[in-house]
Amino acid sequence: MKVIIIEDEARTANELKNMLLAIDNDIEVLAILGSVSKAVDWFTHHPMPELIFSDIELGDGLSFELFKKVSIEVPVIFCTAFDEYAIRAFESNSIDYLLKPLDEAMLQKSLEKYLRLKEHLIQGEQRALNMERVIDQIELAYKQTILVNYREKIIPIRLQDVAFIYTLNGLVYLELDKNRRFTVPYTLEQFDSMIDPHQFFRANRKFILNRDFIEDIEYYFNRKLFITCKIESPEKIIISRVKAQPFLQWLES
Length: 253
Fold this sequence. Notes:
- By secondary structure, the protein is α/β, with parallel strands linked by helices.
- It folds into two domains: 2-140, 3-Layer(aba) Sandwich (Rossmann fold); 145-252, CATH 2.40.50.1020.
- The chain contains eight helices and 17 strands.
- The protein has helices at 10-23, 36-45, 64-69, 84-92, 104-117, 124-140, 188-194, 241-252; strands at residues 2-6, 28-33, 51-55, 57-58, 61-62, 76-80, 97-99, 145-150, 153-158, 162-168, 171-176, 181-184, 200-202, 207-210, 214-219, 225-229, 237-239.
- The protein has a five-stranded parallel β-sheet with strand order 2-1-3-6-7, sandwiched between helices.
- A hairpin with a 7-residue loop joins strand 16 and strand 17 (237-239).
- Helix 4 runs antiparallel to helix 6 (124-140).
- The protein is elongated, with a radius of gyration of 20 Å.
- The two termini are 34 Å apart.
């Protein structure tokens, strides 16, 4: 079986590859693709594999962008940390999933399911229509509003109004457009899987940025980037050299 892995975390991708080979050493991993752009280029110049394992959030966008740009004619097993709502969307469209962290027993079960259904899998135009429905359902699964406790009230905060999310002294804050600031009972890691990666970017271990509130970008020493937001931040927002190019690609997308 020839498979492709689309995953931007090298460790996770290698773990998945090793688990696949442990389950069946006849499996051939043709390539590990770490971004939407690399995946588009690969599928443009190579024949289709038999099966694709794909993360959802990649460094330069959602893997769904690949399926919009390239006609994928083979089954996809998504690797995701999304909640039960999103998983039901996958199942209703005959697309299997793996929850992170990856588990070898679940992986084997997914492979067995694929082999059982191989001859009956939907092909061509109907598969494309099903994929479009999955994309629509998953994009709707991102949080649009966060409820915060403020004094004796519960206040709904629209995420589109949040300039940036940041952590300071062990607390996580939402900074709004009118210099309103609220603490929330989530970590930045939890926000990573809750919010739309088209709208928000994890700049570093302290900040998640809303694209609509980015004022300008300056080159910093050692090829890093210094970000100025329309709302003053409590400290400098620096993007590392490694993240600089994915950040600029995200901002242009």
